[in-house]
Structures are given as structure tokens and as C-alpha cells.
Design a protein that fits this description.
Its cofactor is a divalent metal cation. Residues 12-335 form the PDEase domain. Residues 347-360 have a biased composition (Acidic residues). 39% of the residues are buried. The chain is globular, with a radius of gyration of 23 Å. The protein is mainly alpha-helical. The protein has one domain (19-335): Orthogonal Bundle (Catalytic domain of cyclic nucleotide phosphodiesterase 4b2b), CATH 1.10.1300. It contains 17 helices and no strands. It has helices spanning 14-24, 34-40, 45-56, 59-62, 67-80, 90-104, 107-110, 115-127, 137-142, 146-150, 156-172, 180-195, 202-215, 223-238, 246-269, 285-307, 312-347.
């Protein structure tokens, strides 16, 4: 279960290995604790999870993959995530991959998926944020970063994640035994999936998804329609943190806001305008999360709920989403009340001067 690659750390405690294996038996459950799993695998959650899921779906046999090359590729992907990022790191990639697995098992979708669909879905989930610098696209543009000019200020990060993945695929030789046109097709489809995670294209995908559902014209026998649903599934997996149980959801929320605040501190340091959501003094975690849930997460997951007709999982996710939004609203009220109290105390004079008091 734990790949023996040069990049993997040996698990010295057999008991931990046993616990990790036990967790993998429940990898398709929505309350899967990826933080615990990462600790049990000694920081190898992404590689371990991907090897397990490739075995679950028998992808190694189907595509005649070389295990050494597969381990090398997955090790490269995991290593290329920045562990110093509070949010965009290999644990986030493993979390998105586990969510993707849950979505691939949805009855509405599962019966139509080909081995190639599953391979692409898992690979895109694992690599979708590889080599993320921990800052957003506007930051790269305004600091004239070379990636912004390379990709002409459009889907800068997503294009980089994709091209990095292609580079590692070629370097590892994972697909070198396949016909050239097939490996090129896989690379292009991976790009199409990873580029779909660009949050700037959210409305474009949401409107198309909504139209398909309104018209009831999704035909999952068609490869193009299955690919579109894989794009939507990856988008859902990428932003599903608010749909997790509160204990996990809150950790992710605090991590992503910490990453935003670090960007804001950098912008302050270099006398740049602080980006929206990145000012720790004015952008509270509860306020950021309520906005994110209301404008990005809820609209997408309501349509996913419709697509699944609805499934037990999609209902569970919406229930968590509504509870978590209520929790953040309560915390925002408490946060606002404490701010008001703090300001009023700061404005009160330290002592009253009476009529007979000695005035220096």
C-alpha cells in the first residue's frame, strides 16, 4: 500500500501501516479524514491513495502500466507540490482525488464510465494544482511573473499545472508504451480537465451544466458528454471543502485563508495593492467562507444535486454545506460583536475627571 520509491519515507511503525490500510478500506466514504491519512502514511497520502485507486479500478493491468514508472510519476507529482503552502499542497491534491473517487462511484455516472474516463479523472485530480506557488493569478500578473507572460495572463496557474503534469508524464515514461496519438490525446484531455478548475470560468461551466439539466439532454453514452461531467466533477472535488463534516471543513477554511493572508502580507511588503480576501485586518475567515459558499459552492452543488437525481452523497454534501454556512454565520456574528466591543473599549476614556479633581 505504501510505494517503495526513492522519494517515499519508510513507515517505521507497522501499527501505523495497519491503520492506513484500514482507512483505505473506507476510502469511498465522505467523512474520510485526509489529514489523519497523511499522518499515517508519513506524508505520502497522494502516492498511497493513487496506487490504491489504480488497483481498485485495475487500471495498471488495463493500460499495461509499468509499476516502477507509475511510482516514479506519482512521486514526482507529490514532490512537486509545495509543502510550505498552507492549502495548495499534496494533501489538498489527495483530498480532491478522494472526493473525485466518491463522485466516480455515483450511480448516475459509474455505469457509463470507461477505464480511460476513470484514469483521466483520477490523474487530473491528483495533478490539478501541481507546483502551485501559493499566490493567485492577479498576483502573478501584477508582479510580472514569467508564468503570466508565458500564458498571456489567461488561466495562468491552471496552464502551468497542466504543462508541468505533461512534463512529468514524459519524463517518467509512464505512457511511452502507448501509441503516440493515444498518449497525445490523454495529455490534451488532462489539460481540458485541469483548465476547467479555473475559478474565472465558473459561470461558463455552471451555465452550460444548468442548460443541460434544464433541457434533459445529457447523454452519458457520448464521450464528449462524459468528459463534460468529468470537468464538473473535478470542479466540485476542487471546492468541496465546505461540503465536508465541520471538523474537516473548518481546517481547510483556515488553511486557505492563511494562504490568502500570506499573499496580502507579501503585497504589503512590496507596496502593492492588497488583493481581495487577502487583508487579515479586514477580511475575516467567517466572512470569506460565507461569500465563497454563497456565490461559488452552493450554486454548483445544487446543480450537481440535480444531476445525481439526487443521490445520498449529494444530499449529505448539501446538508453539511448548509450547516457549515450557519456555523460560519454564527462565528461572524461573534467576531463582529467582539470587534465592536473592542473598539468601544478603546474609545472609552480611562477615567472620569470630577469637579474637585486635581488637574495637573
Amino acid at each position: 500500500l505504501v510505494p517503495h520509491t526513492p522519494r517515499s519515507l519508510h513507515l517505521l511503525d507497522d501499527d501505523y501501516l495497519g491503520q492506513a490500510a484500514h482507512m483505505l478500506s473506507k476510502v469511498g466514504t465522505w467523512n474520510f479524514d485526509i489529514f489523519l491519512f497523511d499522518r499515517l502514511t508519513n506524508g505520502n497520502s497522494l502516492v498511497t491513495l493513487m496506487c490504491h485507486l489504480f488497483n481498485v479500478y485495475d487500471l495498471i493491468h488495463h493500460f499495461q502500466l509499468d509499476m516502477v514508472k507509475l511510482n516514479r510519476f506519482l512521486g514526482m507529482v507529490q514532490e512537486d507540490y509545495h509543502s510550505q503552502n498552507p492549502y495548495h499542497n499534496a494533501v489538498h491534491a489527495a483530498d480532491v482525488t478522494q472526493a473525485m473517487y466518491c463522485y466516480l462511484k455515483e450511480p448516475k455516472l459509474a455505469e457509463h464510465l470507461s477505464p480511460l474516463d476513470i484514469f483521466l479523472g483520477l490523474m487530473a485530480a491528483a495533478a490539478h494544482d501541481v507546483d502551485h506557488p501559493g499566490v493567485n493569478q492577479p498576483f502573478l500578473i501584477k508582479t510580472r511573473h514569467h508564468l503570466a507572460s508565458l500564458y498571456q495572463n489567461t488561466s495562468v496557474l491552471e496552464s502551468h499545472h497542466w504543462r508541468s503534469t505533461v512534463g512529468m508524464l514524459r519524463e517518467s515514461g509512464l505512457l511511452s508504451h502507448l501509441p503516440a496519438d493515444m498518449s497525445r490525446d490523454i495529455e490534451q484531455r488532462l489539460g481540458s480537465l485541469i483548465l476547467a478548475t479555473d475559478i474565472n470560468r465558473q459561470n461558463e461551466f455552471l451555465m452550460t451544466f444548468r442548460e443541460h439539466l434544464d433541457n434533459q439532454d445529457l447523454d452519458l453514452q457520448l464521450a464528449s458528454h462524459r468528459h463534460f461531467i468529468l470537468q464538473i466533477a473535478l470542479k466540485c472535488a476542487d471546492i468541496c471543502n465546505p461540503c465536508r463534516v465541520w471538523e474537516l471543513s473548518r481546517q481547510w477554511s483556515e488553511r486557505v485563508c492563511e494562504e490568502f493572508y500570506r499573499q496580502g502580507d507579501l503585497e504589503k511588503k512590496f507596496d502593492l495593492e492588497i488583493s481581495p480576501l487577502c487583508n487579515q485586518q479586514s477580511d475575516s475567515v467567517p466572512a470569506i467562507q460565507i461569500g465563497f459558499i454563497s456565490y461559488i459552492v452552493e450554486p454548483l452543488f445544487e446543480e450537481w444535486h440535480r444531476f445525481t437525481e439526487p443521490s445520498l452523497l449529494s444530499q449529505t454534501m448539501l446538508d453539511h454545506l448548509h450547516k457549515n454556512k450557519a456555523n460560519w454565520s454564527s462565528l461572524r456574528c461573534a467576531h463582529t460583536a467582539s470587534d465592536v466591543q473592542g473598539r468601544s473599549q478603546a474609545e472609552e476614556p480611562e477615567g472620569e475627571v470630577g469637579e474637585g479633581a486635581d488637574i495637573p
